Amino acid sequence: MSKLFLAFDIGGTTIKYSLVDEQLQLSAGGRCSTEHNRAGHILKQLQALTATYQQQYTLSGIGISTAGIVGDEGQIQYAGPTIPGYQGTPLKQALEQQSGLPVVVVNDVDAALLGEQLAGAAQGKAAVYCVALGTGIGGAYLDHGQLLNGAHATANSLGYTLYDPQTQTNYEQRASTLTLEHQLIDHKTSVPEAFAKARQQETPFTTIINNWAAEVATGLANIILLFDPEILLIGGAVSQQGDFLLALLNQALDPLLPPDLCQTELRVTQLADQAQLFGAVADFYN
Hints:
Shape: globular
CATH superfamily of the largest domain: ATPase, nucleotide binding domain
Strand order of the largest sheet: 3-2-1-4-7
Family: Belongs to the ROK (NagC/XylR) family.
CATH architecture of the largest domain: 2-Layer Sandwich
Protein name: ROK family protein
Oligomer: single chain
Pfam family, one: ROK
CATH topology of the largest domain: Nucleotidyltransferase, domain 5
Largest sheet: 5 strands, mixed
Number of strands: 12
Organism: Loigolactobacillus zhaoyuanensis
InterPro entries: ATPase_NBD (IPR043129), ROK (IPR000600)
């Protein structure tokens, strides 16, 4: 009988969950609110869902993708204000004690990268960097099967890099998708609509999108020069812009990189919001 794994993906407002089988098929999934983690709601919800699934299925393991920095013991080492009271939550310990199953806990950007290598755009690649563009900007680096997170698990904190003292802004304050959304408010236009208009060379959207892509490229150039990955994955909802987005970023990268030096290929992620679910359980497939 095929093994079944239970995968969770914990974001700021929503918990997604699904079964994943050995053929990488998702089933019996759903989603629920984090309730802003009121009274430790997230852990309680995971425990309740785990109990329900164990009553109905024979599980072989549990994987958790989560916002925040994950410590060595599978606890939340650091969490920002997006999820109140989350820091210190012992996810791995609590669910292992309850279920009697092995539990793996990984940061959500790490999970997205692991998922893309397992079943998406990074399959078969040894050195892959992933940049998640969204409310902020997160990074993850996988080198020959090893996630490299630094001595204190805070490596790849891309959003805080490239601080500019003149504007007093960091990278994510200039290049996140949220920043692009704010730039479009006066035009009463969403990010997907702005991209559609930019494809048609409509002003001022061509300029706005090009300027944003140039800001994104400044961070990508440093990643390429520092890590030399085979593949640099662009994730987040904006990755749905596909080849058009890649063309903008490659064009913006040209003046930032020495000619003929770098060979990294830019790709967009393939698995959309399923990547973290696959990545949460990726360790069970190794």
